[in-house]
Amino acid sequence: MKISRRGLLRDGGVFLVGATVGGLSLSLPSNSVQASAGKQDVIEVPWPYKKLNPEAVAENAYHGYYKGACCYGSFNSIIEELRKEIGAPYAMIPTSMMIFGEGGIAGISSTCGALNGAAAAIFLITGNIEKEKRKVAFSIIRELFHWYEQTPMPYYRPPKPKYEIIKSISHSTLCHASVSNWCKTAKLKAFSKERSERCGWLTGSVAKYTVELLNANAEGNFKAIHKLSKDVESCRSCHDEGSALENTRGMMDCGGCHFRAPSQHPKT
Amino acid sequence: MKISRRGLLRDGGVFLVGATVGGLSLSLPSNSVQASAGKQDVIEVPWPYKKLNPEAVAENAYHGYYKGACCYGSFNSIIEELRKEIGAPYAMIPTSMMIFGEGGIAGISSTCGALNGAAAAIFLITGNIEKEKRKVAFSIIRELFHWYEQTPMPYYRPPKPKYEIIKSISHSTLCHASVSNWCKTAKLKAFSKERSERCGWLTGSVAKYTVELLNANAEGNFKAIHKLSKDVESCRSCHDEGSALENTRGMMDCGGCHFRAPSQHPKT
Question: pTM of this prediction?
């Protein structure tokens, strides 16, 4: 049996060959084999996608949280389902790398790890290295982040939870602020087992909504629903791109850390 | 020529074979080939490392910033050098996925993308899925984040810059806060070409320091130098793990967003 280098690359290398062929013998001419050492072998974004079951991915993410924390949980849940549905090139990617995002990156509590992992998966599936073509992926990621800030969470309840979890609105995409808001609502501590369970549900929630967005995009039906609030747009009108001050940038809920209403603005 | 499945996996699959062999014929027994379709083919963290030249990586990161922005720039610069030095498994990873972190993730301006990408690379190289063994990677990532918050930046100047860039201290690992502090110091706008160049230098800076940390770790000489400030530890003593309130978590510079001195604390 002979397999061309083009076919080998198109199908994601030896992994798909392994998936479909029993006894195998590969013969490649020397020049094409040598070429396979370089960067040209990387299968760049976007990777193929097949619609997934949001509930199944959410449940995988919930269990993944207890294995490799929030960022791994959301990322791995999507990749693992795509390994089953598509195979290569998803078989190649080390999802364990994404453990780095645990607790807002190594416990530093900056960006929520579930969001960070989901954003990576969204770009892998819908992104593009060409600047103009990044817009679709960025729109989906922004919708996910705005939804997270504005929605009572968790949005997913596992069938067999360790505890029941009360909902809260984070008003922030940052780990520590999201945790603090939940602690205040639930009257529970930041390092309690219940808070950990809450972040497991949250990881499932983010994975579930991400798959809903990816499915809608695959159908050609993706539309951003969650917008920045009027207050945030008011801030941006003086401080963001093209404004008089233009001294910052961002699409986070300013009021989550600063002040909520324009009437509370320091005197100018 | 016959190559065992174990050897194929150990060396990262067809890529290393391609790197070293001219004319090639692979023969694998059917059971081992079929097995290669599953998750067992993923080469999990930690991946092999060979000491790199921090200046070369920084320059690659600076140019990478203009190609795929900050998160891609820092991540790709390290991976691309390791592709040259080690080859597989680095040939397999789609660094373009990391474009997702651009401008604090899709322009949302949460965590600085250069840090986000570097943290992923650090975990890929020094991390572990086992909880106890994550500590080394997390210590290196925390050192990087604390250094970024406390150090006058940029720390790297490309040999042929588009503009000269004034230094500022970010007091934050968040994109928008880091940008705002620089805008204030440099008296330049957030969407100016100079600010963009500054983020290119910053991407180089983060990549450079990351490689210095990875090299030290490879020599067995890694030591965290940058600590949380006394003010932050004062905040954490009432609000973080094991404290009376325990209503948040984090290792960010609290004063970057909240108030700086304990004397400014709201009345309790």
Answer: 0.86
